[in-house]
Amino acid sequence: MTGKIAYLRITVCILLLTAVSSCKKDVPLEELNPVPHAVKLEVPDNFPAAEKDLDNPLTAEGIELGRLLFYDVRLSGNNRISCASCHRQDLAFTDGVALSTIGISGKMLDRHAPALFNLAWAKTGLFWDGGSKNLESQAFGPLTSADEMHQDLLVLEAELKHIPDYVTRFKQVFNEDIKSANVVKALAQFQRTLISGTSRYDKYKRTEVGASLTAIELQGMNLVNSKCKACHSGELFTDDGYHNNGIDASFSDEHEGIFQGRFRVSFNPNDIGKFKTPSLRNVLLTAPYMHDGRFKTIDEVLDHYQFGIQISSTTDQLLYQHLGQGGIPLSQTERKAIIAFLGALTDHEFITNKKINNPNP
């Protein structure tokens, strides 16, 4: 009797092991080895098509990892500064100051923090002088700068490897251990999804139900089209190019030529004093203005273009709109109309979008 019981027990065990084994075989492969899910950019209908980045394809998991990193102070050497410290969502991812001193050194930076949106269309370089070719390489600048985040990349890797959630996420997204090259890839994926295209102007252009612009806003739109569109062109309101807009007549080579604009990168004398054209979208949120934040208000910007053009050998010919002289003539009525239209370019949905805000407030 005892032998039969033992035999039955062994048989039952074998059957159970077989059943467990069968269950494991039935588990989908993707659950055992989860792969990231490809994502297509949600491009507004009135926008141009966005090119895919074949070297860093978007995935849902990669975007979310980038979002976590963007708001994580551990990316800085002192664990106090995140990317979001200088790029606030409520200010269209700018910081609201002319030249920041928030960096680890406490030193005032030489350039104003640019807005971060519609970067999937930035194909002629990043930074005010185009010194970086893409978002991936751009991220290394502030990460390692002694006056900004001042992070040792090897220390960053080691620090992130002590966080189990990051280890899991990097493994899923990139199928390898945490590396600084993948940190910037994840940040770039997140930033490419920062698309601002739901302003009142956009809804008007797409003829959405109930969308409209006032008479003065329409007048301002026509004025921008006639007087500003050469540089602030298309639905992105930037030509993604570089121009000397007459804010200076001379350009010092101090600080490694940072005041010489595009010339610092191209070494082409025709590029002296040229800086990247910012978008007019969300412009009422992104004060102060210019690459060094010298103008506090839109009125000061208009004053510059009307009365303050400085002439140099590379001053853009597009600015000679006043009987062949430098400057863009504007009446007070026209100025008010332009400012009214710029208000219609403010994207309130973008600056309150919970999908791109701090996941750990």
Automatic annotation (TrEMBL):
Keyword Iron applies: yes
UniProt domain Di-haem cytochrome c peroxidase: residue ranges: 61-207
UniProt xrefs under PANTHER family: BLL6722 PROTEIN (PTHR30600:SF10), CYTOCHROME C PEROXIDASE-RELATED (PTHR30600)
Compartments reported by the entry: Cell envelope
Taxonomic lineage of the native organism: Bacteria, Pseudomonadati, Bacteroidota, Sphingobacteriia, Sphingobacteriales
Processing and modification events after translation: Binds 2 heme groups per subunit.
One Gene Ontology term, aspect cellular component: cell envelope
Residues that coordinate or bind heme c 2: 228, 231-232
Domain of life: Bacteria
Protein name as it appears in the record: Cytochrome c peroxidase
Residues reported to bind heme c 1: 83, 86-87
UniProtKB keywords: Heme, Iron, Metal-binding, Oxidoreductase, Peroxidase, Signal
GO molecular function, one term: cytochrome-c peroxidase activity
Cofactor(s) it depends on: heme
Cofactor note: Binds 2 heme groups.
